[in-house]
Structure of Vitamin H transporter:
Amino acid sequence: MATAAPTTISEETFQHQHVTTEHHVAKDAAVPAVAASTVMEEAGQTENQAQKRSLWIAWLYMFDWYSMFQTFYNIGYIICQVPAMLLLSRPKYSRYFLPTMEVLWSVLTFAQCKLQTAPQIYGTRFLLGVLETPVASGSLFILSSWYKPEELFKRAGLWYVSNNIGVMFGGYLQAAAYKNLNGVHGMAGWRWLFIIDGCISLPIGIAGYFIFPGMPTSGKPWWLTQEEHEIGQRRMREEGIEEPKKISMQMFKRVFGHWHWYIGVLAYVLFLSGAYPHGQMALWLKDQADKWGIYTVPQINTIPTGAQGVSVVAAVLATSLCMVYPTWVIFQIVMAIFMFANIVQMVWFVPHGLHFVSYYLFGVSAAVTPILVPTVNYWLKDSAEARAFCTGSMLTLGFAISSFYPLVVFPVVEAPRWKKGYIVNFFFILGCWASLTTGFFLYRKQEKRQKQLDLDEENLKGANVKHVD
C-alpha cells in the first residue's frame, strides 16, 4: 500500500521546486540537473550498494514531487491559453494585458522564496501557469500582426532564442547560487534564485506598459510617429492581414472549416512531444558520474547549457535563412538534424563523443517553433481571431499531451536510456515533419488557386469595361 506524501516538504526536496518558465532566467530544464547534483553528492558519501540504492529511490521520489509541481503549472497554462489569446486579440486590451501578467508573475516569483508546504507550491505553480499563458503564443501573435512573412521569421527567431539564453543563464545562476549564496541571511541558495528572478523580470514587466506596442489597431505607441504608425497599418493591409473583428460563430467556421487549424495543431503537438529529450542531458551526465565518477556537481549544471548555445545559433540561423530561401526547405534541414539526434539515442551503443553531439544537436529543435508558429499565423492572415484561437489551441493541446506523455514514454526509472521512448519519439518527429510539409503543399495549392481566381476576376472586369465602351 502506498504511503501518502507528507504535506510539509523537506528543505532538500523543496530545493528542486525551483522551476521558472520558458521565457525567464532560470528554466525548467535546469531543475533535473540540480536534483541530480544533490543526489550525486549524497551518493558520493556512501560506501555500500544498499545505501546507494536507497538514495536512488529517494531521488525518484523527489522527481514525483517535481512532476506534481509541473502538473499544476501545466493545468493553469492549458486551461487559460485560448481565452488569454482571444483577449490579446482585442486591440483595446492587447497593449496592457501582457505587461500586467508579467508584473503579477514577478510578484508571485518573489513569494516563492518563502513557500514551505506542498499545497502552497501547487497553488503557486497553478497561478504561474495562468500568468504565463499569453507570453510565448501572445508574443508571436503580436509579431505576426506587425511584420510581413519574410520579416517575421527572423524576428520570431530572435525572440525565441531568449528562451535558450535564459536556460544557459539559469544554469550558471544555479551553479553560482549553489556555491556563493547558500546560507546568506539564513536562506538556502536555491531560495535566492527566486529573488534574483523577480528582480530581473519585474522591471521588464513595468517597462512593458510604456514600450509594448500591442496591435497596429491598438492606437499609436508614444515612441512611434503618426506617419510610422500609419505605415505599419498600411503594410499589413497590403499583405492581406485583416484587422480584428468581433468574435462570433464566423470565427469558429473559419477555424474548423478549413485545414489550417488541423495541420497546425497536429504538427505542434507532435513537435512538443518529440522535443522532450532536449534538456535531459543532465540525467545522462548524472548516470555517467555514478558509473565512472567523471563529472562534478557544477559540471552537471553547466555542461547542458552548451545545448542551449546550439539552440540559439540554430534558431537565429534557420529563421534568417527563411528570409532568403523557401521556408519549407529550411524546415526539412532542421527536421533531418533533429531526427539524426534521436536515431543516435535509439542506437545508444555509440562512442561517448557521439552521445555528446546528439544531445547538443537536439538543440536544433529550437528552430522548429519560430518556423512553425509564424507559418501557421500567416496561413490564417485573413482573420485575427482565427490566428489567436489557432495559436492558443496549438499550445493548449500541445502542452496537454506533452504533460503526461513523458511520464508514460520517458519514465525516470528508465533514464537515461529510454528504449521505447526514443522509438516513439522517432515517429513523433516523423509525424511533425509530414504534417507541416503537407501544410506547405496545401498552402501553395491554395495560393495558386487564389491567384487564378484574382486573374479571372480582373479579366472579367476588363471584358465588362470593353463591352460598355
Remarks:
- The chain has one domain: 11-242+251-460.
- The two ends are 92 Å apart (CA to CA).
- DSSP finds 20 helices and no strands in the chain.
